[in-house]
Design a protein that fits this description.
two-stranded antiparallel sheet; 5-stranded mixed β-sheet; 2 domains; 7 strands; single chain; 8 helices; 50% helix
Length: 223
């Protein structure tokens, strides 16, 4: 679990998995180190969302637009089979082009017009043909389309903080690039034992963090 401010890695923590309590622990350590967190940008991991609400209920929590866009594109595929899918993919592709509050208004209105037009498709159900089930078993016919739509709609309140403050990153690309670089370094040393790999990672993050300011965080990316 890694935290980054600007170009600086400010804290990292080894954990078996990402969960609510591990994130709360990390936030407590950051406080002890003297950091003041003013915003968080993350990939919308459920445990992190809950932890931010608990530890920092009043700060902006920007959801990474790249993660949202990538998730929706995966669900819809490059060539959706329905008209509703094609139209939603057009909206998804516009997501990372939003640079002004005017663009945001266009996007939000576009999304809600889409919902009005295709709500029957989004909510369409398929019922089991097994007569013994008496029509009680059903599922959403266009499950991936529905998931893609609600991935965006449920994120709207956390998608545009970067338009209010240009210091808030709209994605976690900088942190993802750090992980990519680290993985490439580790791949060149595949024979290392687990302990030495951990030491390697710790030194990597340490050398990345030596220029970090330890008095204040303006905006933080987490992963």
């Amino acid at each position: 679990m890694v935290f980054k401010e600007g170009v600086n890695i400010i804290f990292w923590f080894y954990a078996e998995k990402e969960n609510y309590f591990n994130y709360l622990y990390c936030f407590s350590i950051l406080r002890e180190l003297g950091y003041i967190i003013k915003s968080v940008t993350s990939d919308k991991h459920g445990s992190l969302v809950s932890a931010v609400k608990t530890a920092y209920p009043t700060i902006p929590h920007q959801f990474c637009l790249v993660h949202i866009q990538r998730r929706c594109q995966t669900l819809l595929t490059k060539k959706p089979e329905t008209e509703a899918g094609v139209k939603l993919l057009e909206i998804v592709r516009f997501l990372n082009q939003i640079k002004t509050k005017g663009d945001k208004q266009v996007f939000v209105k576009w999304l809600y017009r889409y919902e009005d037009r295709y709500k029957d498709v989004i909510n369409q159900r398929t019922y089991s043909k097994n007569p013994e089930l008496d029509g009680k078993v059903w599922w959403y016919t266009h499950k991936n389309l529905r998931l893609a739509f609600y991935t965006i709609k449920s994120s709207l309140d956390n998608m545009f903080f970067y338009l209010e403050d240009n210091n808030i990153p709209k994605d976690t690309n900088g942190l993802e690039a750090e992980f990519t670089h680290l993985k490439n370094k580790l791949n060149a040393h595949r024979g290392l034992s687990r302990k030495r790999r951990e030491n390697f990672v710790s030194w990597y993050w340490h050398l990345k963090s030596i220029y970090a300011e330890k008095s204040q965080i303006t905006n933080t990316a987490c992963n």
